[in-house]
Amino acid sequence: MISLGELAGQLGVELVGDASCNIAAVATLQTAGPGQISFLANSRYRRYLASTQASAVILRPEDSDACPVNALVSSNPYLTYARAATLLNPQVRQTAAIHLSAVVEPSAEIDPTAAIAANCYIAADACIGPGVQIGPGCAIGQGVSIGADSRLAANVSIADDVQIGQRALIHSGAVIGSDGFGFAPDQGEWFKVPQLGSVIIGDDVEIGANTTIDRGALGNTVIEEGVKLDNQIQVAHNVRIGAHTAIAGATGIAGSTSIGKRCQIGGAVVVVGHLTIADDVHITAMSLVTGSIKVSGLYSSGTPLAGNKQWRKNAVRFGQLDDMARRLRALEKQLKEK
Amino acid sequence: MISLGELAGQLGVELVGDASCNIAAVATLQTAGPGQISFLANSRYRRYLASTQASAVILRPEDSDACPVNALVSSNPYLTYARAATLLNPQVRQTAAIHLSAVVEPSAEIDPTAAIAANCYIAADACIGPGVQIGPGCAIGQGVSIGADSRLAANVSIADDVQIGQRALIHSGAVIGSDGFGFAPDQGEWFKVPQLGSVIIGDDVEIGANTTIDRGALGNTVIEEGVKLDNQIQVAHNVRIGAHTAIAGATGIAGSTSIGKRCQIGGAVVVVGHLTIADDVHITAMSLVTGSIKVSGLYSSGTPLAGNKQWRKNAVRFGQLDDMARRLRALEKQLKEK
Amino acid sequence: MISLGELAGQLGVELVGDASCNIAAVATLQTAGPGQISFLANSRYRRYLASTQASAVILRPEDSDACPVNALVSSNPYLTYARAATLLNPQVRQTAAIHLSAVVEPSAEIDPTAAIAANCYIAADACIGPGVQIGPGCAIGQGVSIGADSRLAANVSIADDVQIGQRALIHSGAVIGSDGFGFAPDQGEWFKVPQLGSVIIGDDVEIGANTTIDRGALGNTVIEEGVKLDNQIQVAHNVRIGAHTAIAGATGIAGSTSIGKRCQIGGAVVVVGHLTIADDVHITAMSLVTGSIKVSGLYSSGTPLAGNKQWRKNAVRFGQLDDMARRLRALEKQLKEK
Questions:
Q1: Residue of A48, A101, A175, A232 to mutate for B, most B C-beta atoms under 10 A
Q2: B270·A286 Cβ contact <8 A
Q3: Please, is C182 exposed, middle or buried when counting C-beta atoms within 10 Å of its C-beta (0-12, 13-18, 19+)?
Q4: C304/B319 touch (CB, cutoff 8 Å), yes or no
Q5: C-alpha C272: how far from its chain's center?
Q6: Which residue of chain C is at minimal alpha-carbon distance from B229?
Q7: C121 and C10 share a domain?
């Protein structure tokens, strides 16, 4: 519970309305009731503003006149909302302790302010920093280091020698440091190429559930600071992902590709190996990237959804496209000659 | 072991042949031998009927004449087969007990008929219903409720406050209730938006191995009753999946999208965020859905497979399609004017 | 540490240079220093040869003249490098023991030379062969057999009755033997079809992190010897993958499809169900395979990446392709008639 005036002060935004109004929680414009604060960041939801029962709404200056209740005026309502929600929902920390059922090798260093949950395994020479919270069932390999205030949910697997920065948040089922996919052809069979590098993860990185990040073959796979990875992403060996890049779920980045800083990559995108993607590149969902991208901007591939019958007709024609193009050129030539 | 007559009675279908014949197991038409029952549901397999060594075959009335052995006649042989297979292969239940190696917080309520396997962790205030079976290595968060007779395989992670209905079946590595992927842009960096909702799962839902379902940002992610999700599916925050919809492996549903009831979605489909998909929509594998679908039916996107050399030629022409269309229009105009 | 002469002997390749030079490690051409050996297999890296600080380089006969340092001459430098790296980085084995925190059912047979890490669960009648290493948090189902010298990383889940050959390497989060996705339609709802088969995995198979392999419905899912599967692959029930086939990350193979031997399948490919893919087929990343492939070769589908504005124009035209083809044909006819 916090007064609206105090909340506005902490968020550094202008209050229009009753500073003494008490706010206990956040909610959407449609569902909010008394004591709740909502936000309007996307014009998609403007229709809900007039009838909102929220005690206050965070919105842009230009929406302020239309607000029937108290307003917090912000040039970036979504960010202000995120900050308010964080203030109103402080994270509950695990108690700093090593659970009796956890197995910690003697040479591992666990900061006394860290929390290791039930059924974890911490291998030799691992170094777990201050305030780190490790959820139940995690396996932390030899020589792994995890920086201050990082948090691992349940059943995360970190392989040997991986280095994780501060304030990381790693969701359940994520696997970091598994072997890269490297094999030398040997007379119709495959000979495994040892994967001798590791994974280096910067500060303030979030890694989604069941996302996998392979260790480098020679040299490391690198996730720079502030990168946000959604669920079920596959990052192959020796990839580098630049600072503050965000990647949506189920995307795959093949080996040795380097992604720039502040990129935004949609879901289920595939970037093939050995490419360089510039800073500030945005890629729409399910695109296939087969060449390097040198200029920032928005990129896409794919074909539009259609009814299956219509799609079948057009898809068959895709296989005739080169022929169609040649025939079109021939017609143009023929008409010009006339 | 059951007599064919008794089996026909329990399945509620007509028997043509020897009611006293004993049936011990199910098998395919090609591999079945004495004491085994098979089925013919797909014309692809009709060629195996004449030579089958099965003691009985479940088939449609129109295939009954061609059956060289005992027959169970059903209008839906695949369903009848599934029922027969279920009768002949009763599930072996874990013994109702909490394994000594499991860690259960004192405030968790475990029904005495539930079974908690080795190395599980059950957090505070979780509520595990009658007949529930939880496999080894599962982590169940605070305040989670799991309804009667639900079953979790090994190494499943359920985050705080998730609610799961009755008779759920959740396969290994599935993660339910991980944070949604929500960040507010903040001067070239990302500020995490707290994910304050949960996941609500109805009765009779099956969730495949390594499938992930994120918790809602505000409000919940909802999986209605009877939904069947295959492996490695990604369900983002605030998605709703309608009752009895079935989704094949590796499909991704982006945030706030609502899928209708009884839909069938193929593998590796991507549905982008904030869409509404009607009831009874079918979508073929690897389609990209970028707009809402209002009418039930079969939808597709993508291009057909081809030899790489041929494909390269046509793929280049895809990038010239708009130009080709304009030139075609120009030719038509030119010819009309003549 | 090994002398270059001894290394050349063990690798069976020709040495050009100082046999007494000591080699301690492998490194890339750019980063190698004294005591390190590098390799040149890909012309992409030839520019680094002249300035390398490596003590020796593994390269092809035709590159030997340009090598400023000691050379090991090989017709397959990448394979020779892989062998050298393996020699120089012998795998550290877990101590043969069952960790005190592991739970092993009395009827399971654990070879005395096997190593079972912390917090594992080994169910009844499982059979763990000589030299097997099982990482922390793994769950091994009833009746599972794991052949000699196989290795499981952390948090792997193997369901009942799965058979794994010798020298398998299975990475964290992999799930083998989960139920196939089989349901019979029953008046708008789904009735589960029992998944009664298992998974049979040959010798020398590698399975990536968070890859899932479902058990057969009737009969088994089969992964033949020498198959290499990258991370996050989905293999559905009753699939067969032929010997020495390699599949990159995030690919999905739908039910009952049979993939030939020595195939190479790129990342995020989808192969629909009930197909047969011949031996030695190569498929590029993100292709959709909807029909059987009878002839070995390189196959592709998809459309090229483009700037979003350009892509939108062309993507719209994709939906007009059949119309364009008909109009092109009409123009040709019209011009011919003149």
A1: A232
A2: yes
A3: buried
A4: yes
A5: 19
A6: C181
A7: no
Residue A244 C-alpha, separation from nearest chain B C-alpha, in angstroms: 6
Of A60, A88, A116, the one marking the end of a domain is A88
- Examine the domain organization and report whether B209 and B133 are in the same domain: yes
Cβ-Cβ contacts under 8 Å, C139 against chain B: 119, 135-137, 154-155, 172
**Structural domain contains residue A324:** yes
With a cut of 0.95, is the ipTM above it? yes
Contact: C318, A314; criterion CB under 8 Å:
yes
Residue A231: domain span: 103-299
Specify whether the CB–CB gap between C211 and C174 falls below 8 A.
Answer: yes
Q: Are residues C149 and C247 in the same domain?
A: yes
In tens digits, what is the pLDDT along chain B, a chain of 338 residues? 899 999 999 999 999 999 999 999 999 999 999 999 999 998 888 999 999 999 999 999 999 999 999 999 999 999 999 999 999 999 888 889 999 999 999 999 999 999 999 999 999 999 999 999 999 999 999 999 999 999 999 999 999 999 999 999 999 999 999 999 999 999 999 999 999 999 999 999 999 999 999 999 999 999 999 999 999 999 999 999 999 999 999 999 999 999 999 999 999 999 999 999 999 999 999 999 999 999 999 999 999 999 999 999 999 999 999 999 999 999 999 988 86
Among A318, A323, A326, A332, most B C-beta atoms within 10 A, so best to mutate, is A318
Q: How far apart are CA C282 and CA C247, in angstroms?
A: 10
Cβ neighbours of A86 in B, within 8 Å = 192, 194
Alpha carbon distance C136, C134 (integer Å):
7
Does the beta-carbon distance from C308 to A184 stay under 8 Å?
Answer: no
Contact indicator for C29, C17 with CB cutoff of 8 Å: no
What are the Cα distances from residue B24, in Å, to A33, B19, B64, B80, B93?
A: 61, 14, 22, 16, 20
Q: H or E stretch including C139?
A: strand C139-140
Same structural domain, A148 and A244: yes
Q: Which chain C residues have a beta carbon less than 8 Å from that of A331? A: 328, 331-332, 335
* Residue that finishes a domain, picked among B28, B61, B88: B88
**Interchain contact, A184 vs C81, CB within 8 Å:** yes
**CA-wise closest residue to A153 among A88, A109, A210:** A210
Chain A, window 268-327: residues with a beta carbon less than 8 angstroms from a chain B beta carbon: 268, 285-286, 302-309, 311-312, 315-316, 318-322, 324-325
State how far the alpha carbon of C198 is from the alpha carbons of A301, C110, C192, C206, C241, in Å.
39, 21, 17, 18, 14
Q: What is the DSSP string of A254-300?
A: -TT-EE-TT-EE-TT-EE-TT-EE-TTEEE-TT-EE-S-B-S-EEEE
User: Any idea what DSSP says for residue B43?
Assistant: G
Same structural domain for residues B215 and B260? Answer: yes
Say if the Cβ atoms of C267 and A268 lie within 8 Å. no
The answer to whether C335 faces chain B, any CB pair under 8 Å, is yes
